[in-house]
Each structure stands twice: as C-alpha cells, then as structure tokens.
C-alpha cells in the first residue's frame, strides 16, 4: 500500500458547556491529540493512536468516560466503549462494564477473540482476567465522576489505515444495564477502508437515526466527510437533540457537526501539525 499522510480528530462530546469549562476541555483535547500525534508522526498505527487518545480522555475527569464517568440511577458507573480497525474490520466492544478505568483497552483486548462484543458481568470477567478491571474501582470512579459527555477519536496512519474508538460513562441516572450507541458499530463508531467515525450524544436518538451508518454509507457513495456528516445529522431532526459526529476518509479529509448546544473537538495532520481545538458554540455558553 502506498505511504500516505497521517491525520487525527478527537472529540470530547456534544454537550452544554459553561465558559468556565472551556479551558479544561481545551487542555484535555490537546493532551489526547498529543498522545495520538506522537504515535502517528512516528509511523505508528491508527489503531494504537485512537486507543491512546481515548485513554487520555478516560484519564481526564473533564470528560464522561473512564475517570469522569457519570453514575446510573443506582449510583454505579457502567461504561460502554468500542474500537475498530478499518483495514481488517476487526472490532472490540464492551457494554455496561463496571470497575474499569479504561474500557477502550478492554474493547481492544477483545478484538482478536471470536466473540468481540461483551456486556455486563461477562465483560467484567473478561477484563478482570486480563488485569484490566478490579472490583471496587467503580466506587472510586463514582466519587470522581463529573464529566459531561462521550469521547472519541478517528485516525489515519501513514500506511493508509483508518481506525475509530469511542468511550462513554453513559447518560447518567439511567436504568442499570442501559446501553447507548457508543459500543455499537454503525451507531457510535465505525471504520473500514473508506472512512472512520465516532459519534457522541443521546444514544437512543443516535440509534433511531442509525447515525453512524448514514454517515459511512454517504462517504462510500462518494460524499466528502463534511457533507456526509451533515447528511447523517438530518436524520436526527425531530429527535431529542445534543448529538454529534466526527468522520474522516482515507484521504485524511475530515467532517464534523452536531445538533444543539456545543461540541468539543480537535484535530491535527501531517500537513497541518499544529493542534486545532474547536469548542463549537462556546460563545453562546453561560458564564460560571
Ligand atoms: N452517547 C452516549 C450514550 O448515549 O450512552
């Protein structure tokens, strides 16, 4: 495969942000970009880059993933995460997983398995056996959880491989066992040889709109990522708002958009390596 340029986009959710939340969001997105760019610019894989970027945001309580996860109606942290390699279509995903700081890494560990999407206690036991979860971790996370929404990353590496990853602590106050869009291919993420995407927002709306699938199929049909994102978002009309998408094609072209409120995202590429961070809609945010 001919060598190409690398590119990465991260998002820290589509969410109502106060102006006082701008700096932590900017810092968190910059940290996530730094992780991904260090890998991509030294010839590493898109898969490693998206995992590293999402792990950085799972470590950061600014975001609703890992350390910053929201709690469900019973005060427990249940996380969803997924990761996908565009060149092989390998996918790993976990749903309603307790007691882990890095659900994206549990999802990655599932990729070579036969059954690659695990939920609840089964996901926990798999993670624990790999040293990636421990009973009681969730209580610490529940005490810290203050993040706002889902995180994600899409990347293209110098070998021309695309990858995507998404991680979330869910919607907060939800029924135990609730699963959102984030772990489900075609909803909260997807990657193939043509494009990669990660979604954020209201999982039930994203599922009803088939958001990720709409976007990826539009790119497969020849639309550029920005047009494909805008096309996909039209299917959210009339549904509860606050959802968004990032997407990238195999040329490293990017697209993003959201419905309602603000969206936090950042990007960099070999051609424009200075990190760009966008807090879309922050100018309309409340102070405090
Ligand atoms: N997009 C996160 C969720 O609905 O769980």
Search tags:
single chain, 288 residues, alpha+beta, Glutamine Phosphoribosylpyrophosphate, subunit 1, domain 1, 8-stranded mixed sheet, 4-stranded antiparallel sheet, 8 helices, 12 strands, binds glycine
Set down the secondary structure blueprint.
Layout: E1 7-15, H1 22-40, H2 46-59, E2 79-85, E3 91-97, H3 103-110, E4 117-119, H4 120-129, H5 137-144, E5 151-156, E6 162-168, E7 189-191, E8 195-200, H6 203-209, H7 211-220, H8 225-233, E9 243-249, E10 254-259, E11 262-269, E12 276-280
Parallel strand pairs: 3-4
Antiparallel strand pairs: 1-5, 1-11, 2-3, 2-6, 5-6, 7-8, 8-9, 9-10, 11-12
Helix pairs in contact: 1-2, 2-3, 7-8
The chain binds glycine (GLY).
Question: Can you walk me through this structure?
Answer:
The chain is α+β, with helices and mostly antiparallel strands and 288 residues long. The protein contains eight helices and twelve strands. It has an eight-stranded mixed β-sheet. A four-stranded antiparallel β-sheet has the order 7-8-9-10. A hairpin with a 3-residue loop joins strand 7 and strand 8 (195-200). Helix 1 packs antiparallel against helix 2. Residues 80, 150, 168, 170-171, 180-182, 188, 200-203 line the site of glycine. Glycine binds at residues 80, 150, 168, 170-171, 180-182, 188, 200-203.
Heterogens: glycine
Question: Portion of residues in helices?
Answer: 25-40%
Query: Please, what is the average pLDDT?
Result: 93
> Could you give me the name of the CATH homologous superfamily?
(Glycosyl)asparaginase
CATH-assigned fold name:
Glutamine Phosphoribosylpyrophosphate, subunit 1, domain 1
Low-confidence stretches: none
**Structural class, from helix and strand content?**
alpha+beta
Q: How many distinct beta strands?
A: 12
Overall body shape:
globular
Q: What's the architecture, going by CATH?
A: 4-Layer Sandwich
Per CATH, the class reads: Alpha Beta
**Tell me about the biggest sheet?**
8 strands, mixed
From N to C, what is the helix and strand string?
Answer: EHHEEHEHHEEEEHHHEEEE
The separation of the N and C termini measures 51 Å
Rounded to an integer in angstroms, the radius of gyration calculated over CA atoms is: 17 Å
Strand % is 25-35%
What is the number of independent domains?
A: 1
Q: What is the count of DSSP helices, taking H or I runs of 4+ residues?
A: 8
Strand order of the largest sheet: 4-3-2-6-5-1-11-12
């Amino acid at each position: 495969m001919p060598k190409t340029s690398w590119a990465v986009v991260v998002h820290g959710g589509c969410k109502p942000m106060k102006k006082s939340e701008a700096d932590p969001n900017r810092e968190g997105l910059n940290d996530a970009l730094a992780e991904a760019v260090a890998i991509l610019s030294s010839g590493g894989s898109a898969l490693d880059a998206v995992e590293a970027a999402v792990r950085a945001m799972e470590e950061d309580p600014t975001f609703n993933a890992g350390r910053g996860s929201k709690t469900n109606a019973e005060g427990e942290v249940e996380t969803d995460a997924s990761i996908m390699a565009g060149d092989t279509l390998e996918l790993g995903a976990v749903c309603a997983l307790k007691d882990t700081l890095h659900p994206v890494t549990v999802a990655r560990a599932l990729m070579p398995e036969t059954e690659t999407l695990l939920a609840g206690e089964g996901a926990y036991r798999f993670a624990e056996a790999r040293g990636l979860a421990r009973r009681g971790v969730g209580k610490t996370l529940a005490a810290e959880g203050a993040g706002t929404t889902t995180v994600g990353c899409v990347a293209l590496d110098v070998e021309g491989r695309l990858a995507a990853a998404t991680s979330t602590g869910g919607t907060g106050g939800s029924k135990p066992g609730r699963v959102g869009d984030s772990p489900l291919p075609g909803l909260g993420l997807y990657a193939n040889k043509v494009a990669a995407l990660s979604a954020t927002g209201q999982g039930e709306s994203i599922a009803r709109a088939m958001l990720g699938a709409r976007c990826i199929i539009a790119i497969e049909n020849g639309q550029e990522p920005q047009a494909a994102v805008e096309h996909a978002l039209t299917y959210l009309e009339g549904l509860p708002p606050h959802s968004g998408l990032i997407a990238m094609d195999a040329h490293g072209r990017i697209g993003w958009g959201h419905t309602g409120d603000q969206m936090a995202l950042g990007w960099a590429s070999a051609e424009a390596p200075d990190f760009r961070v966008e807090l879309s809609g922050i100018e309309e945010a409340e102070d405090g």
